[in-house]
Amino acid sequence: MNHFIELPIRQLSIVNYYSSFATGVLFLAICVVSAEVSSGAYDASKALKERQDQLNRICSKFDDDLKYEYQALHGMPKNDIYQTGKSEKMHYDHVNKWMYCTNGAWDHVHMNRLKGVSMYLNYNNDTIEHLGSLSSMPISDFNDVLKDYNRIMVVENPFLKFVDYYQHYFVNTPQANERYSKDVITYWLNHRVDKLSKDKARTEGEKYFEISDLEEGILTFRQFINFIVKASEEIAMGKKLVSDSTGFTLRWEPMWKHCTPCVKDYRFQHIVDLAHIDEDLDHIMHNVLDIRNATDSTPLKIESFADNISSFDKYNENNYGAWVYHGYAKDHMKIVEKFYSTLFKSEIRGLYEKYRLDFELFGYKPDEFLEMGMNDDTTPSYDP
Length: 384
Hints:
The chain folds into two domains: 44-157 and 256-305, no CATH class; 158-253 and 313-370, no CATH class. Helices cover 51% and strands 4% of the residues. It is mostly helical.
């Protein structure tokens, strides 16, 4: 015979209460986890819009000729405007009407390859005729045509960019830049009382992380940053070494100067962050420009940034010995921290001040990197 145990109403209510409570807690936990996953996912469309708003806000902030930033962002000579004057023909895709500006270690190579794939996807006789008509236009008419183009600028946190510069140009390929490094050492470093050399007597480990040695003709990271920040003031030819408008020194040029992002009628609509370059470009090429094969309507295929630069990594690794990391600094933050731990906070702050407009225009903050540096008596406070 089956026996049923019947709980009193009060006990049954308690059981139902705890059961409902447990279910509610579980549901809430699932919602919280789902929300965290959802909110943590990168949204390229939203991020690009936020960067565009940031750029427009700062450009407007300094659109006042009583502010010294006005001349830098709005008052440059016509020949210095990147979009119509300085940019090379290779920076345009005239078929799909977009152009780009970069100034990082390898992002130019990536964007140039992407432009080639994009432009030649549907290249035909009509394309040749169109390009011919553009080349025969008066410059004023041609510049009017460019106003309708989508303009893409690839940016990177300046603190990360200088680790990439140091890694790619001074450490990995010293022979390729031997003459420039020799000039920096001869005309700047050798004239300093403080050579900023590694203090081998100290035993603080990572605080003196170095992979270079002046005997090999390679600056240490601390020497490199101090050269960028101070050489223009310390020696007569310092400005030429750091910021000559031609040749090797174009690499140190701030983005506000190189890409002239605030120019009226030619402002950049798409600010791609190197940290999310694949997601950002995927959104722009497929959702904004909607570039497709005219034959079967398949979307433009975009090679990933990592795959695109891997061939350069392999080439340099095979030809040059001192290889610190593969790819970009953004993926090696522990190494980045080691580099900046060799600097005093005041030296890091000096780099920030020199590139302050880039930080403002693109929404980067110096706090994380200032914390990596060593304390010193001359470190000023940071006022965002």
